[in-house]
Design goal:
There is one protein chain. With 142 residues, the protein is of the alpha+beta class. The chain is built from five helices and four strands; from the N terminus they run βαααβββαα. The longest helix has 15 residues.
């Protein structure tokens, strides 16, 4: 902000398309307590926390600006699949699969908290998201 006025920032949006599950999965991190848990009716404040911690550096603000009603309507759908990665007992990242059609699933959000990116722990979560995405699609090639 300059003189109290917001400044424009450059934004790049990238879309990727995947038609098959990854051929190889990275090994599970060793010497760590690790859990990848599916959420059920994720509390809105916790989802916003994940978005903030993972996306702050990249200005992920859209979810943070949504009303509780708008956010709950999207998140608390029966077909929504949100998984949170815990390392050594603390949240480390998450992914959010959002189905659109029987053969189309969007990886709506994916990210790791900076502390774990630095330690190169994101490959396991990225691979888990890819495998879970493939299971949700009916026409996934193996």
């Amino acid at each position: 902000m300059e003189n109290g006025a917001p400044q424009a920032i450059d934004v790049t949006v990238t879309f990727l398309e995947m038609h098959a599950a990854p051929a190889v999965s990275p090994p599970i991190p060793y010497n760590r307590q690790i859990a990848l848990l599916k959420t059920k009716d994720i509390p809105l404040h916790f989802y916003r926390y994940l978005i903030d911690r993972v996306g702050r550096k990249w200005h992920w603000v859209n979810v943070l600006r949504m009303s509780d009603e708008e956010l709950a309507a999207g998140l608390h759908r029966e077909d929504r699949d949100i998984r949170v990665l815990y390392l050594d007992g603390a949240p480390a990242g998450f992914f959010d699969l959002k189905p659109h059609l029987p053969d189309e699933v969007e990886l709506a959000d994916f990210g790791m908290m900076e502390r774990w990116i630095i330690r190169r722990r994101s490959r396991f979560t990225r691979s888990s998201a890819s495998r879970r995405w493939c299971r949700r699609r009916r026409s996934c090639a193996r």
